[in-house]
């Protein structure tokens, strides 16, 4: 692992995040899918929403097939995932074991449903709840993988500057750790690149005329997901949460 390779991983995850958002934006809000009362009303004794049930049950299936054998993947319902049926695969473990399970999935969950989704999906209800929450799962998994990858970034940074990090970790100096791991120039690159990806991946492709670039002066250019929303997603939530993961990982790096 090096700073370049971990940044390459984050860059490739951007594509997954943007494509996921484009797919979710195809569906309307479909609020009943998020309402625990909707299922309870069906009299089946469920206390969770369709969305929660879908994520929980999908994670259980994926756990059996070994998804969470890889430390890159962290479930949202860790206490509900059954043992894997997959034969052991020798995943390399670059992470420090006492800090390897640090994650902010709870914060990602509430950010996604309470903050992002209302901005991403258009109002409406077409009844296609399973397809809708299945695209939510893809978004949640992509965001979780990207944000919790902060563990790997932190490991690289720690190894590259052990002396300074060790002092700050011993002093539990969260603010100084945050400052040391921050690169504002890099954050700016990331935010502008994801905004551009939303333009490139989310344009309407037709056979007539040139490929729309999004920065032409045609005001008709419309994108499947608002590029400024993707910028905002990274600026307000993805990068700050990644940094939170980095700090929490570092705080356990000497345990
Ligand atoms: O690339 C890094 O150095 C990271 O730590 C990742 C990241 C990000 O989330 O994109 C987070 C903190 C840095 O300030 C810059 C970027």
TrEMBL record:
Gene Ontology cellular-component terms listed: cytoplasm
Matches recorded under SUPFAM superfamilies: Chorismate mutase II
InterPro entries, alphabetized: Chorismate_II_sf, Chorismate_mutase_AroQ_euk, CM_AroQ_sf_eucaryotic
Keyword Signal: yes
Recorded superkingdom: Eukaryota
One example of a Gene Ontology biological process annotation: aromatic amino acid family biosynthetic process
GO molecular function: chorismate mutase activity
Catalytic activities: chorismate = prephenate
UniProtKB keywords: Isomerase, Signal
Catalytic class of the enzyme: isomerase
EC number: 5.4.99.5
UniProt xrefs under PANTHER family: CHORISMATE MUTASE
Name the UniProt record assigns to this protein: chorismate mutase
Lineage: Eukaryota, Viridiplantae, Streptophyta, Embryophyta, Tracheophyta
């Amino acid at each position: 692992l090096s700073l370049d390779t971990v940044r390459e991983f984050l860059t490739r995850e951007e594509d997954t995040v943007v494509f996921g958002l484009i797919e979710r934006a195809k569906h309307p809000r479909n609020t009943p899918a998020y309402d625990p009362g909707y299922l309870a009303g069906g009299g089946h004794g469920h206390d969770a929403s369709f969305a929660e049930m879908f994520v929980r049950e999908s994670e259980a299936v994926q756990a059996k097939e070994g998804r969470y054998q890889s430390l890159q993947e962290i479930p949202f319902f860790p206490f509900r995932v059954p043992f894997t049926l997959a034969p052991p695969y020798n995943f390399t473990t670059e992470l420090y074991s006492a800090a390897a399970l640090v994650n902010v999935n709870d914060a990602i969950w509430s950010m996604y449903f309470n903050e992002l989704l209302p901005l991403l999906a258009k109002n409406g209800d077409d009844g296609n709840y399973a397809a809708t929450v299945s695209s939510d799962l893809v978004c949640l998994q992509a965001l979780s993988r990207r944000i919790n990858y902060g563990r790997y970034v932190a490991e690289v940074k720690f190894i590259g500057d052990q002396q300074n990090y060790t002092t700050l970790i011993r002093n539990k100096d969260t603010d100084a750790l945050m400052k040391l791991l921050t690169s504002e120039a890099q954050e700016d690159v990331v935010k502008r690149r994801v905004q551009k990806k939303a333009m490139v991946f989310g344009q309407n492709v037709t056979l007539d005329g040139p490929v729309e670039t999004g920065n032409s002066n045609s005001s008709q250019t419309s994108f499947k997901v608002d590029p400024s929303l993707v910028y905002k997603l990274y600026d307000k939530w993805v990068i700050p949460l990644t940094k939170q993961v980095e700090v929490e990982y570092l705080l356990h790096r000497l345990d």
